[in-house]
């Protein structure tokens, strides 16, 4: 019975690869979850260019990659008024050396003609006190461990004898000069591509086994225990993520690897309870590997599972077990903030009963995959949440040789009628906010079904 909603929750878990909750094990406070490792992306060459482009730009693109993971991040930035962008790789072929040993930056050109071309291209910065060039360096000497560093340049002086340009420069933060910006985190072709076209998505493995005892208490002198005896998720969520200062968190997601979950829950009582139980049960908090670019973006995915459970009646001493599997067909796709035609598969497993018992209970677990991010200092969040608001199990009446109303008369075999119903809802969300927010929440599907309606011999 508890299994059903958990199973539906498992589907969400699989669907979103981003989850929220933390479990209480045997009624103890949940431990602080471990922090998953971040995948650090490093600067890559621009997608195109001849290496001699000295022009100032109001908009430019910057690429970071992690070749081993096949991940690419492409940021497009629109500069604010009175700012112009100058990216070092764009004119690297006409530069002999760059000296960042002092606060100011000295650029030595390979020829007098290249210096003259730079003077013409950069004269704008000296025309007004408010005019500022953002010089973006991406070599170790100027950018250090960050790999890419913007500098604010308020004026430039030239030495035609030495073929040098001296930038009056100070380190800058990206957000200081960004009017607008967006960054797309996705995949690159496994074989590599000089054009760095996006050829696949970022893969997020949500497989996790969270089988464990999850709750223990005493009611009316009766010991009551709930265990997640076989609870696990599997599959991969393939994501194409865009973070934007204007539009917040956006992503398109596709399932693979039989994305889904199996959940079997057992409830054991040592006798009859007369007072109903209602409790919130955090089951698991699972940090997933995130992505990070120094001073630009940080994404920390987390999968959480939490359930609201209630037991309104438990007669005699027994253990009742109920389970379900939930999965999505490979290739199921959806976009945060938009509807989708998704048909989940929900199947019952592991229904059993030991002892003569009457049980009425329900559980409503929620599996949430949450991607909390910061992009140029702005908080953004997106993800999915699968809720099974009603997993209701009724083991109808005490088992007797006369049978039950549900099972009907029999020939001396003790039976209990059982019905297990579940409703599952998958929601997606994305926008501006913190780790606990669910902005622009949209429902992708809402499905109700009867998992079990049968007679058990006890």
Automatic annotation (TrEMBL):
Native organism = Trichoderma harzianum CBS 226.95
**What Pfam families does the record tag this protein with?**
DUF7029 (PF22974), DUF7223 (PF23865)
Q: Where is the DUF7029 domain?
A: 80-181
Q: Which residues form the DUF7223 domain?
A: 204-456
According to the record, the signal peptide region is 1-21
> Keyword set for this entry?
Signal
Write down what this protein is called.
Answer: Uncharacterized protein
Quote the InterPro entries the UniProt record gives.
DUF7029 (IPR054293), DUF7223 (IPR055647)
């Amino acid at each position: 019975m508890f299994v059903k909603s958990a199973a539906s929750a498992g589907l969400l878990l699989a669907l979103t690869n981003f989850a929220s909750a933390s479990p209480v094990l045997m009624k103890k406070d949940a431990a602080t979850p471990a922090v998953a490792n971040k995948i650090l992306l490093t600067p890559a060459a621009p997608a195109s260019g001849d290496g001699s482009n000295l022009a100032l730009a109001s908009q430019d693109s910057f690429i970071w990659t992690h070749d081993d993971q096949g991940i690419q991040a492409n940021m497009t930035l629109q500069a604010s008024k009175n700012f112009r962008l100058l990216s070092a790789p764009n004119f690297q072929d006409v530069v002999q050396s760059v000296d960042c040993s002092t606060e100011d930056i000295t650029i030595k050109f390979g020829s007098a003609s290249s210096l003259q071309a730079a003077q013409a291209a950069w004269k704008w910065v000296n025309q007004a006190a408010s005019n500022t060039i953002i010089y973006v360096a991406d070599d170790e000497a100027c950018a250090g461990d960050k790999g890419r560093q913007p500098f604010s340049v308020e004026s430039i002086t030239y030495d035609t004898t030495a073929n040098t340009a001296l930038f009056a420069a100070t380190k800058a933060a990206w957000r200081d000069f960004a009017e607008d910006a967006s960054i797309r985190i996705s995949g690159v072709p496994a074989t590599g591509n000089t054009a760095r076209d996006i050829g696949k998505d970022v893969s997020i493995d949500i497989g996790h086994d969270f089988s464990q005892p999850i709750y223990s208490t005493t009611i009316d002198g009766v010991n009551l225990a709930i265990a997640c005896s076989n609870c696990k998720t599997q599959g991969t969520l393939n994501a194409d993520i865009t973070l934007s200062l204007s539009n917040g968190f956006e992503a398109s997601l596709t399932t693979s690897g039989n994305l889904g979950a199996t959940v079997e829950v057992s409830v054991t009582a040592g006798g009859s309870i007369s007072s109903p139980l209602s409790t919130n049960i955090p089951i698991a908090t699972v940090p997933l590997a995130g992505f990070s670019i120094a001073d630009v973006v940080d994404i920390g995915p987390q999968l959480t599972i939490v359930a609201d459970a209630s037991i309104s009646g438990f007669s005699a001493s027994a253990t009742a077990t109920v389970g379900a599997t939930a999965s999505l067909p490979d290739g199921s796709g959806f976009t945060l903030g938009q509807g989708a035609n998704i048909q989940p598969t929900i199947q019952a497993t592991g229904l059993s009963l030991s002892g003569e018992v009457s049980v009425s209970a329900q559980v409503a677990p929620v599996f949430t995959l949450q991607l909390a991010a910061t992009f140029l200092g702005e908080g953004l969040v997106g993800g999915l949440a699968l809720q099974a608001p009603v997993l209701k199990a009724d083991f109808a009446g005490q088992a007797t040789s006369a049978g039950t109303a549900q099972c009907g008369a029999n020939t001396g075999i003790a039976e209990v009628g059982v019905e297990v119903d579940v409703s599952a809802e998958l929601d997606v969300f994305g926008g501006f906010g913190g780790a606990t927010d669910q902005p622009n929440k949209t429902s992708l599907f809402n499905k109700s079904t009867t998992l079990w309606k049968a007679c058990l011999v006890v």
